[in-house]
Amino acid sequence: SAITGPVGKEAAELWPRIASNSGVVM
Description:
The chain is mainly α. The chain contains 1 helix and no strands.
């Protein structure tokens, strides 16, 4: 499913941090 809107923008900014912290890249 595609995520759009302000939620998608926030997720796009948060994922890199979460991925780097957890060491998992989706």
